[in-house]
Amino acid sequence: MEVSVGKTIGRRLFVALIALGSVLGFSFGTAKAAEDGYSIRAQVRDQVRTADGKADNQPLSGVEITVTDANGEIVGVALTDAEGVVIVSVPSRADYTVSLNEETLPSGEKLDAKTPAVQNILTDSFITKTKVVTYFTGESQTVRQPGFERVAQRISDGIRLGLILAMCSVGLSLIFGTTGLTNFAHGEMVTFGGIATFVFNVTGLAFLGSLSFIPGIRPDGTFHIFWAAPLGIILGGGFGWALNKRIFGPLRRRGVGLVTQMVLTVGLSIALRNFFLSRFEGRTRPFSDFSLQRAWDLGPVNITPRDFVVSILSLLILIVTALGLRFTRLGKATRAVSDNPDLASATGIDSEKVIRLVWIIGGALAAAGGVFRGLDEQVSFDMGGRLLFLLFAGITLGGLGSAFGALVGGFVVGVMVEVSSLVVPTELKTAPALLVLILVLLLRPQGILGRAQRVG
Fold this sequence. Notes:
- This protein is an alpha+beta fold and 456 residues long.
- The protein contains twelve helices and ten strands.
- It is 54% helix and 11% strand.
- Strands 1, 2, 5 and 8 form a four-stranded mixed β-sheet that branches. A four-stranded antiparallel β-sheet has the order 4-3-6-7, with no helix packed on it. Strands 9-10 form a two-stranded antiparallel ribbon.
- The chain folds into two domains: 99 residues, Immunoglobulin-like; 297 residues, ABC transporter involved in vitamin B12 uptake, BtuC.
- It is globular, with a radius of gyration of 24 Å.
- Helix 2 packs antiparallel against helix 9.
């Protein structure tokens, strides 16, 4: 029996990875072929540093960049675009000189004293096929903000992170509530949403270039983020459906224990993370739209239009999700299955159908979180994995299996993570959230909105 179950798990995991490869593999194979040549990416930024140590770097367009080879021959000359970036293709890995024409800088701008106008690139510095050279203008000293403004800025950043964590936590909590499964691969479901959107937005699908007559679809097969994000979220929901259909649904019907399924999610998480690494590579990459913007000054808080819109959309998604759980038939059925699956089935509720829809909704919400996190901090192969323990902290704080508890807990943890950077080093800002996780498990295991239950 154990051998049969092991073969079933392995076979279904293999099928799931093949399906995932069919979605992402072709696209990134095309991208790799297009990146065979070497290039130099020069970017010009006007830097201003705030009290929390973050650089509010604004792009400078129209700045002339010249690349010459070791013999002094010009390889390329170009002006920076609206994002302050220029990419010059070079024939091979070799020594080059990158020069910035200071006369083309905007009026009143000058290079920082620590940034030379001429920078030399050596052959060995091409660790990847693209070598990045950055020029800074403006003052480099740290600008100290008043204490109130520092706190307000951290709270603003924490609200944005908290909304994203709450959105991702709801799906994780619903899956646990309806199936009892602790899904350690949920972080990779978040990553899937970010990478799928990146495929549509940056890599492109060449065969869709024929649809360029539709606004938002470009001739090279890439989509504007307004198209790419919904497509990525839809694929995220499909990914959740596939995991339930091909792996966890059959295992439930075979009576495989929750511990075995939980161990499977750990292995699935490792497999997916390494798959993403092999296809996406290890560096972080931005979406092609809204990657660099000037921040708005809203009183004591600085926020870019992109982050403001992300916060509003996250809030709207959470409100719609909460209202759906509270008032719709599916929401009531989901809460019934979470409270007592056997009793729900006895009253005529199709528990398997509810669980299937929960996986779809959970996958879509996780993908939305991946898209918004990618807009906030760029896309990487482990972006969801780095949020996983914060998600567990959120649903534990709010109450295991409670969707509304996950909303509250995820939001509180996000704010706590950002505000804690005022008193602890930035590298340790997640430690207080994990400390709260330990204290909640010790003092109030049912969480904020959970109900105490008798065990044994």
